[in-house]
Amino acid sequence: MSRDMYRQRILDHYRDPQNYGTIKDPDVTYEDVNPSCGDEIQMYAVVDDEDEIVDVKFDGQGCAISQASASLLTEKVKGMTVEEVRDLETDDIREMLGIELSPVRVKCAVLGLKVLEGGIVEYEKGKGT
Amino acid sequence: MSIEKASPYNVEAVRDDFPVLGRTVDGEKLVYLDNAATSQKPQAVIDAVSEFYEGYNANVHRGLHKLSQEASEAYEGAHDKVAEFIGADGRENIIFTSNTTEGVNTVAFGWGMHHVEEGDNIVLTQMEHHSSLVPWQQVAKRNDAELRFLEVEEGLVKDGEVEEKIDEDTTAVSVIHMSNVFGTFAPVDEIIDRAHEHGARVLVDGAQSVPHASVNVNEMDADFLVTSGHKMCGPTGTGVLYGKTDALHETEPYRYGGEMIKIVEYDDATWADLPWKFEGGTPNIAGAVGLSAAVDYLEELGVENVHEHESAVTRYALELLEDDDEVTVYGPHADYDKERAGVISFNVSDAHPHDSSQLLSDQGIATRSGHHCAQPLMREMGVPATTRASFYLYNTYEEVDALVEGIETVKEVFA
Ligand SMILES: Cc1ncc(COP(=O)(O)O)c(C=O)c1O
């Protein structure tokens, strides 16, 4: 069943992630780990005056699901407002990946989103909103 | 293959004793290779627990009624059985805990906090499990002591480390007996000798060694030893803390309350005799009964035989895995001629261990992936995580073949 999980698209994003790297002086930056398996992700984003994400990058290491999900997420959120990103939920990630996930693997899949949202919370605190 | 697929006992007959081994996983035969995390339970253990609940469930120690007497006898007798199993003098040296972690905490907080002083050092190895690392970090922090680590290479403590790190300022040494990452043994005899020369006490983490190899605390001369019943065919929620009598007298209880007292006044209390002063509250009686049955089971099979069987299966697995260029094995290899046990850490080509375990699980093969509660060690090794296969008394050569075959699928997906 889970061979299904490793669809070509997932493997492609794992091997050759999009928006992989760092951003100097980002507006949003955060990192977190998945302690049960050691996946690590850092997210960096630049936000314009309209609170829209104009650039986003991630780095880190971990399993195919966590890394591919972070890569796909960076593509998805470019152009979204920080509020729209904060409204994203696990189901959106499921849909974005297009695969079935066991409860354990959901944690891998949502790590990127969790990190980005963590960064946004800090960013909004900093702005005083 | 140069290895003879032999075993000192009839493995198929042994497998029949473990009901869960007969199940399938999504239509695939279960191949359970996660024994370092917890072992499966034989019918005899499951029955012992059921018989307790069905026949003589009662609280222990205090009751005068028949059921309580029977339960107390079984519970206290389980201490005697474990004492004999690990070569301890008697029940006063055996404290039942819920797991290894609780045992380490009892020693670290009940003994360490009171004896490790400012400027002293506490010596551990680089391959400690978090459960024997983190409690000592707390002791070191609160008491301003130094933590020192015996350096490890490929699962073996480097030459000269014991001499260099353990000195006159060492008060406590806590050492993993058998590594849950590499299956290697730490040189406990050398460590204990050196520590005792300097008046330090030694805690041995026997979570992996006691289930898989014959361990004698008196011969080893350990001051404390901890282990988990659930890794040796016993129920979950069982563990053992062994202590030398004088070491236990130096140890403060860590959990205060009922069952651990002798005389209680409104403003003070005195403690029960060993070992009960460390067993505050109603204990895991059913667990103790099950653990006792587990010890019987292991003794009947012979722990030396278990070790021999696992070593042979492991060597077979290592030879196959090392033949494969895309598999990296961490720790000593098949040609390592010293004692080792049935744990193999490896990675498959570019696959993250998490993905390897997932794909293996699809084929019914249970392995574990991650840092194995040894994050600093993984950093030292330069890998984020590994996949681990760990064997026990019921694993077969055919299951090793299944693992090797399963790895082929991982290679295909991540080729
Ligand atoms: C070497 C070692 N020490 C300690 C532990 C912790 O055991 P428990 O989880 O039963 O407390 C384990 C097992 O996970 C282990 O392998």
UniProtKB/TrEMBL annotation, chain A:
In terms of PANTHER family, this protein maps to: IRON-SULFUR CLUSTER ASSEMBLY ENZYME NIFU HOMOLOG
Query: Domain NIF system FeS cluster assembly NifU N-terminal, which positions?
Result: 5-125
For this chain, one GO molecular function annotation is: iron-sulfur cluster binding
| Name this polypeptide is given | SUF system NifU family Fe-S cluster assembly protein
**Any single GO BP term:** iron-sulfur cluster assembly
InterPro entries membership: NIF_FeS_clus_asmbl_NifU_N
From TrEMBL, chain B:
Matching entries from Pfam families are given as: Aminotran_5
UniProt keyword annotations, A-Z: Pyridoxal phosphate, Transferase
One MF term in the entry's GO annotations: pyridoxal phosphate binding
Q: What class of enzyme is it?
A: transferase
Domain Aminotransferase class V, residue spans: 31-403
**Its EC number(s):** 2.8.1.7
Q: Which NCBIfam families match?
A: sufS (TIGR01979)
Protein known as: cysteine desulfurase
